[in-house]
Design brief:
Number of helices of chain A: 11
Number of strands of chain A: 10
Helix content of chain A: 40-55%
Number of domains of chain A: 2
Bound molecules: adenosine-5'-diphosphate, magnesium ion
Strand order of the largest sheet of chain B: 6-7-8-3-9-10
CATH architecture of chain B: 3-Layer(aba) Sandwich
Radius of gyration of chain A: 29 Å
Distance between the termini of chain B: 30 Å
Oligomer: heterodimer
Shape of chain B: globular
Distance between the termini of chain A: 25 Å
Structural class of chain B: alpha/beta
Number of helices of chain B: 6
Order of helices and strands of chain B: EEEHEEHEHHHEHEEE
Number of domains of chain B: 1
Chain lengths: 377, 237
């Protein structure tokens, strides 16, 4: 009878189309919005993911990864003195002004890697070598820089020069890294040169990156370093989630996205629930005939459930498929962001499951109460 | 006709609560239907014919009296048993045909077999054979709205017969048909539904088809007021 139930559904094209469209739209809306939300949240943690060190040491008052409160240079040595530290290196990150050949300005994030080890170096070089940062005035720029400069009519390639705070910078490499929340290009250089680019100041150390010795976990090491006065040590994943939680708590981003997701839910419940109710209602006469002909209640219930969940499944497939396609083509340029971890489709699947169960329940209530004798009326 | 009793109804009472009053649709009705016959239940509108048919096939519960169908006491059967009993033993022809508009003729006809748990392919094969018997061999794949009223009724008859039930129940089978189609429908029922081990019960107030009855039970106001072997003997109110 499930076969019969599905034929009854699929051939009722108007209601079928309505149901599938409603659920597809609802899935698309929720999936797309959640993915953009996740994408934005990923942007907020770009620095953490690009650098990738196991333990991050910051000023005690820092609340999230994009907040830089400069520390004294001495902190690097204090961290090194903690038991269990395999290595500890400084990292500079600061927003500086780059001046282009045509005289226009561009804000950039200068990342100063430890001069000796280049710890935190970009993994994906599309041109040049990161080791060339040891040459005079050299920098490595990311793809965002290339893109932003190109829009201003300046082509960036190996050997291109520009100025950062009036000091010369020469491109020796181009890399591809995750872009940041505000979209300022990353300019990699050595720690020492980064301090020359930066405006002079008493405290200039942004982060101390550290790693544990074998046999000690990063979390354990972070806890040990954290005991030092005036600093805070955070394991990489903790910093990642701490940053995301901070943005969720302190910005309107979740509210605006949440509103759209709830809107999708309401639209889905309203359209799908109502249409399915109509569908069952219009078929009551025939379901009563089945009952008279000896169909069990459980058979009819299975039919209604099969109908509800098959439209759910198809609508969901179309919606999530469209969202993924949307993300991959329309948004491939990374603005706006789009990131669909498996939790997003799983979450949307739960919502669709809920909508279908809800719709089926309304239908079932009617079918169970149905008197087979009504067919003779 | 072999005179064995297929359905026996004894002093059955059935009432409906309509607001604050009770309507007695059956006030102690009795009848017998035998194998190998077409029994017609006739009477004016509202006299309880449909109600009687509903209690006989177990889609309605009754309050008093006794109904036996093929030696089974319906009053003593549990709901699930009655449902199963209907599935296996009763074929239905409804006044409004009740064909599913989104299913083809052959799919509609195969439903009783599918309800019995037969595989779709087997059920549809059997359904085709029955449709061929009633002269709808060309219309397997037609949807109900592509068929005339008479053709739809023939599909409905096929659906009632496909699982070879022993009791066939028809409520006003000609009410939605013109007299020529109605005539043909009864001829078809007589030819293909009626067998020595089967019983056909038809509820109607369409006097044009009375001549097809082997016996007639006349009802009025919830009572059976007479049994007749010939429609010319019917009492006229
Ligand atoms: N479900 C019901 N609820 C209330 N009254 C009913 C119901 N079914 C039938 N009746 C009443 O029972 C009486 C007999 O109805 P019915 O058996 O349909 O008559 P017939 O089929 O002979 O026209 C009528 O008065 C009708 O109004
Ligand atoms: Mg009636």
């Amino acid at each position: 009878m499930l076969n019969i139930a599905l034929k009854m559904l699929f051939r009722d094209s108007a209601k079928y189309a309505m149901l599938v469209c409603g659920l597809a739209f609802c899935s698309l809306l929720m999936c797309q919005q959640s993915s953009v939300f996740c994408g934005l949240m990923m942007w907020t943690t770009a620095t953490v993911r690009n650098i990738g060190a196991p333990v991050w040491v910051v000023d005690a008052k820092v609340e999230q990864a994009n907040e830089v409160i400069p520390m004294r240079q001495i902190e690097v040595d204090r961290v090194r003195s903690v038991q269990g530290v395999a290595w500890a290196v400084p990292l500079y990150i600061g927003i500086e002004q780059a001046r282009l050949g045509d005289g226009s300005f561009q804000n950039v994030q200068v990342v100063g890697l430890d001069t000796g080890t280049l710890t935190g170096r970009p993994m994906n070089m599309t041109a040049g070598r990161i080791e060339d940062l040891r040459l005079p005035d050299s920098v490595v720029v990311d793809q965002v820089a290339v893109e932003k400069f190109r829009r201003k009519g300046i082509k960036i390639e190996l050997g291109t020069t520009f100025e950062i705070n009036d000091k010369a910078a020469r491109v020796v490499g181009i890399c591809r890294v995750s872009r940041s929340f505000l979209g300022q290009p990353y300019i990699y250089t050595t720690y020492d040169r980064a301090l020359q680019y930066a405006k002079p100041s008493r405290k200039q150390l942004s982060y101390v990156l550290a790693a544990p010795m074998p046999g000690i976990s990063a979390k354990e090491l972070a806890a040990r370093i954290d005991k030092l006065d005036g600093v805070r040590a955070i394991e990489r994943d903790d910093l990642f989630w701490m940053t995301i939680r901070w943005y969720i708590k302190n910005t309107g981003i979740p509210i605006s996205f949440g509103t759209v997701v709830i809107l999708g839910l309401i639209v889905g419940v309203a359209i799908a629930g109502q249409t399915f109710y109509l569908f069952v209602h219009d078929n009551l006469r025939f379901l009563a005939a089945f009952k008279a002909m000896g169909a069990r209640n459980s058979t009819l219930a299975a039919m209604v459930l099969a109908q509800a969940f098959s439209v759910g499944f198809i609508g969901y497939g179309i919606g999530v498929g469209l969202a993924a396609w949307f993300g991959n083509t329309v948004l491939a340029k990374e603005a706006p962001p789009f990131f669909m971890p498996w939790q997003v489709p799983a979450f949307v699947a739960c919502v669709i499951l809920f909508i279908c169960s809800f719709s089926a329940l309304i239908g079932l209530a009617k079918v169970m109460r149905l008197e087979p004798a009504v067919v003779f009326r | 006709m072999n005179n064995k009793i297929a359905v026996r109804v004894e002093n059955v009472v059935k009432s409906f609560s309509g607001g604050d009053s009770r309507v007695f649709a059956l006030k102690g009705a009795s009848l017998e239907a035998r194998f190998g016959e077409i029994l017609m239940i006739v009477g004016p509108s509202g006299c309880g014919k449909t109600t009687l048919l509903s209690v006989i096939c177990g889609t309605l519960k009754f309050e008093e009296g006794k109904i036996t169908v093929f030696d089974k006491d319906l009053g003593k059967m549990r709901n699930g048993e009655i449902t199963r009993f209907r599935r296996e033993n009763i074929g239905f022809i409804f006044q409004q045909f009740n064909l599913i508009p989104t299913l083809t003729a052959v799919e509609n006809v195969s439903i009783p077999l599918i309800l019995q748990g037969r595989p779709t392919a087997e059920a549809e094969k059997k359904a085709r054979a029955v449709l061929e018997e009633v002269g709808l061999g060309e219309k397997f794949k037609s949807y109900p709205n592509q068929l005339s009223g008479g053709q739809q009724q023939r599909v409905a008859i096929s659906r009632a017969l496909v699982h070879e039930p022993r009791l066939i129940i028809c409520d006003e089978p000609t009410a939605a048909l013109d007299s020529a189609s109605g005539h043909k429908t009864l001829e078809l029922l007589k030819a293909s539904a009626l067998k020595p081990d089967r019983c056909v019960i038809i509820v109607t107030h369409d006097s044009r088809i009375y001549p097809f009855a082997d016996r007639i039970v006349q009802m009025d106001d919830g009572h059976v007021i007479g049994h007749f072997d010939d429609h010319t003997q019917l009492q006229h109110a």
